[in-house]
Every structure is written in structure tokens, then in C-alpha cells.
Amino acid sequence: MTDTGNEQPAIRVLVVDDQFLVRGGLVALLRAAPGMEVAGEAADGAEAVALAAKTHPDVVLMDIRMPGITGIEATERILAAAADPPPRILILTTFDLDEYVYGALRAGASGFLLKDAGPERLLAAVTAVHRGDALFAPAVTRRLVEAYTRTADGTAAGAEPPADLAALTTREVEVVRLVARGLTNAEAADRLFISEATVKTHLNRTMTKLGLASRAQVVVVAYETGLVTPGG
Question: Which CDD domains does this entry report, sorted A to Z (predicted)?
Fold first, then answer.
């Protein structure tokens, strides 16, 4: 599918799932959906990494639990090798409070979705993570992150030390706090009395300074550093 006139180019999606029927269903759904294009399909993590490098998708639908290379490791490898802009990675899982999903968000995935969410919600999730101006399902994402940051020192068990926020300006810290609470760029702009474009600039600079790949990863860092506290 190509861009014609004023139409937006199709969102190119790479589908990754080790179950043939699940993968086939996702591919069929995407091919039938306006504004979507299947960039490829992979049956495991290694194939996903290779296809992502070859096809340069906009979004990767990534199964989290696969034999061999897991969705977490595949996410890390894809983002590490990707050209700018990197693909947005949407994790597919069977249940939301999953430490594997948390690990994938920590690695740079943009969000996650339950496999039984239904066609309309899946397509909405692909569109949302591709747009990137808001956290998809912020309440569910916060619940997941809170569940895995409730440790004595505020850091997830077994995790590397969290990012150092000292490099951020006061305004960038304010933006991170609001994003971590699930606000969109427009809502954060209203709260801070600045433009939406300025919020986006602050967020992009924050992600560059801290070496982060996604908005969801910003949320993880905000909780792990204690900038935002569970239940706060």
C-alpha cells in the first residue's frame, strides 16, 4: 500500500508469534484493516530480529513468551539495531501482571496488549503506539509497573541501576512526572501552561539524555528512581 494524495501512509506491522493460528489470525486482521500493512511475520524471536532489520516496520506485534529468544531479548536486539526512527514494539501477552512484560517495557517496548483484547482494541493499540503521543492503556501500564517496583529500595529485583535523572532540567522532570502518571502531551501542556510541541520537545530530550526508546520506558524509569511512587 502506498501513500496517495493527502492520505497517511499505511502503518507497516511485523507480526511475531510462535503459534501459527494466532499469527495467522493477526496477519489476516491487519491485511483487512484500512491503513495497515503487514511488513512480515515471524515464528520466533530470532526470525523477528532478522525480519525487523530487513523490512524496517513501523510497529512490531511481539509475542512475549517464545522458545529460544524471548520477546524481551528480541525487543532489545531490534531496538539496538534499528535505524532512526526505531519501530514501536507492542507486546502481546496472555495476562497483564507479567514480569516478562515488565522486562519488555524496561527494554524499550512501547506498550502491551492482552491476546484476547479483540480486533478493534488491537488495531487501536497499533495506531496509538505508532502515534506515540500518549501511553496506551495508562492505568493498566501503571498497575504493571507498580507491581514490579515495590521493593525495599524502589528498584525492581534483579534490575540494573535506574537512570540518573541529574542530567534533566526542572521542566523535563515535570514532564516525566506527568507522562508517568499517564497524561497525554496535550494534557501535560495544559497542566504546565506550555505548548504541546514544547512538551514533546522536553520528552524527546529526556529520552535522548537517558537513552530511552519509548514512553513506557520513561514510566518505568520514573517509578524505579522514585520520581513517581506507587499509589502516588
Answer: LuxR_C_like, REC_NarL-like
CA 29 – CA 119 distance, rounded (Å):
7
What is the C-alpha to C-alpha distance for residues 230 and 232, in angstroms, rounded to an integer?
Answer: 5
Question: Strand 88-93's sheet: what is its strand order?
Answer: 36-42, 11-16, 59-63, 88-93, 111-114
Distance CA 181, CA 141 (A): 10
Distance CA 173, CA 14 (A): 34
Collapsed DSSP state (helix, strand, coil) of residue 25: helix
Cβ-based neighbour number of residue 103 at 10 Å:
23
Tens digit of each residue's pLDDT, the chain (232 residues): 444 456 789 999 999 999 999 999 999 999 999 999 999 999 999 999 999 999 999 999 999 999 899 999 999 999 999 988 899 999 999 987 889 999 999 999 999 999 999 999 999 999 999 999 888 889 899 889 988 886 434 444 445 556 778 899 999 999 999 999 999 999 999 999 999 999 999 999 999 999 999 999 999 999 988 899 887 6
Closest CA to 130 of 7, 3, 10, 4: 10
Q: How far is CA 178 from CA 23, 50, 108, 140, 218, in A?
A: 36, 36, 19, 16, 11
| CA separation for the pair 67, 70 (Å, rounded) | 7
How long is the chain?
Answer: 232
